[in-house]
Amino acid sequence: MNVAIMGAGLSGLACAITLEKYGISPTIFEKRSQVGDRFVNGEALLPLFNRPINDDYAYLAENHGIFLQPLANISQINLYSEARQGVISGHLGFINSRGREDESFEYQLFRQVKAKISFNSEYTYEQLLQDFTHVIMATGDAEYAVKVENFQVDLTCTLKGATVEGKFDRHHIGIWLDNNLAPQGYGFLLPYSEKEAVITIGYPDYPENRSLNLASLWDRFYTTVCKDFDQNLKITDQFEVNRYIMGLCKHPRLANTFFTGNCFGAMMPAFGFGQLSSILTGIYVAHDLCGKGNYEELVKPLTKSYHNSLLIRRAMEQLDNHKLDILVTLLNNRFSNHILTNKNFNPLKIASYILRPFIKIG
User: Fold this and answer.
1) What is the pLDDT of residues 281-314, one digit of tens each?
2) pLDDT tens per residue across span 219-234
3) Residues 268, 302: Cα–Cα separation, whole Å
4) Pairing of β 117-118 and β 27-29
5) Domain boundaries, the chain
6) Half-sphere exposure (CA, 13 Å, Cβ side) for 134?
7) What does CATH list as the number for 3-355?
8) CA atoms lying within 13 Å on the CB side of residue 55
9) CB-hemisphere CA count at 13 Å for 312?
10) Does the predicted model carry a pTM greater than 0.90?
């Protein structure tokens, strides 16, 4: 067995780590000069989206021998809509970083891989098919899956973010649900530390949004964050992503090619995070290659989670600012806090069942 992994991101590195545990040494190809995305970004692992898994870090360590450390745990989410504010408190998840910095998920996984990575690789998928018995597509986006007509595109998104300096509680995050700032989307603030955070807006590229002025939306969002956090935040770095594809592959495996990470469809549409799903797809491919399971069966729960998340997104997109104000008000009470932090409650699954008769996702 001669295995090639195309991409040294979350799924590709997790796949390599797991293969090596079973005595298989893959060859890893990465088109960039180092691991990590082209910019540093903050993300969150929220158990309420991943249940029945309640602690993603413990689950990966105890069940798969993959060891990651968060930047901080999340004890409070501050919610902001156009005219309302709310707070959700409890053990809500963890903050992690992505990209080219030492504590990012990519670098933490990189330090656990023994196989050499060929950086600045110019290998194409077609060349890998000729030279290897198995190819794992882990490129971090759906370009190749779309190219071979194995991907259902549900939407594309525009993202703009920045690293800012200020004073932050590293255990508190902010989420903005306001169509004036991010139409049919959201904004968030995630601290890296007490002195640094990332702020980001994201919204879908539907026809009615394509004429939007991103610079104007960004200025409005930045001003709002500064006001809500009562400080003048200093921007030190910025990034922008246009028409980022969200969707799901039609077949997780085609012949001896496996689609993982965002080539599979690990990005959860509701709030855009998909780190756990990406890592799990890499692990599951390795289990298949080592005779420990069937990849197409193993990823079925991830496929269900994706569809549930898409239903939530479609429902959120139909809410105007008045309804978003009502939503924030409903979330801002002790009962909602108890439900969202209850380990035995899967809000994503239950909400999707309630919404399924009313929301079209096709």
Assistant:
1) 999 999 999 999 999 999 999 999 999 889 889 9
2) 999 999 999 999 999 9
3) 10
4) parallel
5) 3-355
6) 21
7) 3.50.50.60
8) 12
9) 18
10) yes
Decide: 244 and 121 in contact? Cβ < 8 Å: no
Query: What is the rounded distance in angstroms from the CA atom of residue 316 to the CA atom of residue 204?
Result: 12
Q: How confident is the model at residue 361 (pLDDT cuts 50, 70, 90)?
A: low
- Could you read off the pLDDT of 32-43 as tens digits, one per residue? 999 987 778 899
What does residue 331 show for φ and ψ, rounded to 5 degrees?
-80, -15
Joined tokens for residue 320: 């105007």
Element (H, E) at 298: helix 295-298
Token pair listed for 52: 């029945």
- Structure-token pair, residue 228: 């809500």
- The closest of 96, 233, 223, 242 to 163, measured between CA atoms, is 233
Q: Quick: pLDDT tens for 310-341.
A: 988 998 999 999 999 999 998 898 877 777 77
Which neighbouring-strand residues pair with 188? 175, 200
Q: How many CA atoms lie within 13 A of 347 on its CB side?
A: 17
- The string of DSSP letters for 1-44 reads --EEEE--SHHHHHHHHHHHHTT---EEE-SSSSSS-SS-EEEE
- For residue 51, give the nearest of 256, 351, 284 by alpha carbon: 351
Q: What's the rounded Cα separation, in Å, for the pair 291 and 312?
A: 36
Sign of the torsion angle spanned by Cα atoms 207, 222, 104, 117: positive
Report DSSP state, residue 142.
S
Give 55-94 pLDDT, tens digit per residue.
999 999 999 999 999 999 999 999 999 999 999 998 899 9
Q: Name which of 266, 252, 255 is nearest 128 in CA terms.
A: 255
DSSP bridge pairs for 76: 89, 172
Q: What is the pLDDT of residue 3?
A: 97
